[in-house]
Design a protein that fits this description.
The protein has three domains: 9-149, Rossmann fold (3-Layer(aba) Sandwich), CATH 3.40.50; 165-274, Alpha-Beta Complex (Hect, E3 ligase catalytic domain fold); 382-570, no CATH class. It has a five-stranded mixed sheet, with helices on both faces. The chain starts with 8 loop residues before the first strand and ends in an 8-residue tail after the last helix. The protein is built from 16 helices and 16 strands. The longest helix is centred in the C-terminal third of the chain and has 45 residues, at 389-433. By secondary structure, the protein is an alpha/beta fold. α11 runs antiparallel to α12 (445-469), α11 packs antiparallel against α13 and α13 crosses α14. It is flat.
Length: 570
């Protein structure tokens, strides 16, 4: 380097307080200690000591931009820093540094490990260092994202746990859960219950502060304070407390969490109505068990599900519906729902014709509980008691044997036809090559070709039939097992199951379900009819062996009167 050129240094120190990826980087104090030693050894006196706490993964750092502006103006021409990755972790800022070197404005970057001067090799090495920093950042981003996705798949929401819960900091990274804050979650549950019972929000906030002495979780810089009014509203409107969360935020992708819930979904939805809003989450229609699988029996449009909320006004007793235009007050007297003392809130789910093919379709809607009653009634007709399981299996096997005998006879007949067809094809060939047919008088080439094609096609068809019959028995056995299992468990599981389970059982009743005159019908498979006939036989058998409800009083009366002398003859 030319000794006549005076190097004017700017010290630059940076740590990232925004991003946990750089927690292992030296702190500002540690960087200052190392840079002080370099200044002492090289007899350097920096013009300024610049520091900032901001991520370098993206452009836009105020202190860094100020440093480059001072170099542009000629105030300084060298940088003293702890490592090149302190200067930048993105190629935009890296390009600006290299550009200043190319223009002769930046002559040197001094670090504890080496010096980068304005030479082709040093600029290449500096560019390589920037590239390594960029790749390191990208690799960390991918690893963090992969870890967050795994946590989400496991049912644990990534991010800071809300009030009433704790982040697991003990378990190995990748297996951390959302823990219950046993000190605060019981109070959060009481907040939901109190508001549902009619306690105003401002009164809940006062009770939490003065009576419970509730304080938020103490963090490094925040927390340890009473619940504010806005925090109480935030708790009452956060669906995380029902066991559901949105991830990523704003994506409308809702997931089922594995954390302990603080309130049921029904009560939470009623609270949202009380607050003049609807529940903020919708899981893409999956909460409707029978949507998009039924057709209208009149116009063949799809059957859709819709929710309806109604409130009985405490003032004028009117039952009014909540619509997009009216979410928070009575349509008659104008009383706000939030001002009503514990109003009655009704929630219904209806299934109706979507009217896509006919806007004037007259098919009426049916309430979900009445639709489920129809499904339970159909399931009851095939519900085989556990005590009759062996008998039912015997009956199914007996019917299967009858079918097997028929299949066996059919297979034998097909085999005979296949053998005969092969023989005909052989005879045709013998006739064609016979000495008597040397002149084609018995069978010419055209007739031979035509008959040969017919026999070969017939032979191919018979061969396919023989091959297909081999798997029919196995298929029939599998259907038998599924039918018995369905008949025994379906009704019980439908009563207790969630929307997904109810949908699965509903579709097991048959294909092409239709809704007409509020009654659902199916194209049921044959085995369901057989099970229904079995159930009738079982019910009739129980009636024959069941004890009579009428007592035989004649025997009892005779014994009773014989013990009384005054009623005996003579």
């Amino acid at each position: 380097m030319d000794n006549k050129i005076t190097l004017r240094f700017l010290r630059y120190r940076r740590k990232s307080s925004e991003d946990n990826k750089e927690r292992q980087a030296a702190s500002l104090e540690d960087q200052a200690y190392v840079l002080d030693g370099i200044e002492a050894r090289h007899h350097i006196k920096a013009l300024a000591d610049l520091e900032e706490s901001q991520s370098a993964h993206t452009p836009g750092r105020p202190v860094f931009d100020t440093m480059l502006e001072r170099i542009e103006k000629g105030e300084a021409n060298a940088i003293l820093t702890w490592h090149p990755n302190r200067i930048c972790r993105n190629m935009t800022d890296g390009g600006r540094i290299i550009d200043l070197m190319d223009r002769g404005l930046l002559l040197e970057i001094l670090t504890p490990s080496r010096t980068f001067q304005n030479t082709p090799m040093d600029k290449f090495m500096l560019t390589l260092e920037f590239g390594i920093s960029k790749k390191d950042s990208d690799d960390k981003s991918i690893a963090v994202k992969r870890g967050l996705d795994k946590k989400n798949r496991d049912g644990w929401r990534p991010g800071v746990a809300p009030e009433g819960y704790l982040n697991d900091k003990v378990t190995e990274s990748g297996f951390r859960k959302i823990l219950t804050d046993s000190e605060r979650l019981p109070f959060v549950k009481r907040i939901f219950q109190m508001f549902h019972d009619g306690t105003p929000v401002i009164e809940i906030q006062r009770i939490a502060d003065e009576d419970w002495h509730y304080r938020t979780r103490q963090k490094k810089r925040l927390g340890g304070k009473p619940l504010s009014l806005s925090m109480v509203y935030w708790i009452l409107t956060n669906p995380f407390y029902t066991g559901k969360y949105e991830y990523p935020k704003g994506s409308s992708n809702w997931h089922e969490g594995r954390h302990e819930t603080a309130v049921s979904e029904e009560i939470f939805n009623e609270i949202q109505i009380r607050l003049g809003r609807r529940s903020p989450y919708r899981i893409n229609g999956k909460e409707f068990a029978f949507s998009a699988i039924m057709r209208c029996g009149i116009c063949d449009s799809g059957i859709v599900a819709e929710q309806k909320w109604q409130v009985i006004c405490k003032n004028c007793k009117l039952k009014f519906s909540l619509t997009k235009n009216n979410k928070d007050k009575c349509t008659s007297c104008g009383t706000l729902i939030a001002d009503m003392d514990n109003p009655t809130i009704l929630h219904y789910i209806y299934y109706r014709c979507g009217k896509k093919k006919n806007r004037l379709c007259l098919e009426k809607s049916v309430r979900v509980d009445r639709l489920e009653d129809q499904v339970l009634d159909k399931l009851g007709k095939i519900a085989i008691p556990d005590c009759c399981l062996e008998w039912a299996i015997e009956q199914i096997e007996k019917m299967g044997k009858q079918d097997n005998n028929f299949e066996k006879e059919t297979t034998n007949a097909t085999q005979r036809a296949f053998t005969e067809c092969k023989q005909k094809l052989q005879n045709l060939l013998q006739l064609k090559i016979a000495p008597a047919n040397s002149d084609g008088s018995l069978l010419n080439d055209e007739d031979y070709k035509t008959q040969k094609q017919i026999l070969e096609q017939e032979l191919k068809t018979l061969e396919e039939q023989l091959g297909g019959s081999a798997g029919k028995q196995q298929e029939a056995d599998e259907k038998t097992g599924k039918a018995i299992t369905f008949a025994i468990r379906a009704q019980r599981e439908f009563r207790k199951g969630d929307s997904k389970k109810k949908r699965e059982i509903f579709m097991g009743l048959g294909s092409h379900p239709k809704l007409q005159e509020r009654i659902v019908s199916f194209d049921s498979p044959k085995y369901l009819f057989e099970l229904e006939e079995m159930k009738k036989d079982i019910d009739e058998a129980f009636l024959r062996v069941a004890p009579s409800n009428q007592l035989d009083l004649a025997i009892q009366s005779g014994a009773f009167f014989s013990s009384i002398p005054t009623v005996l003859r003579g």
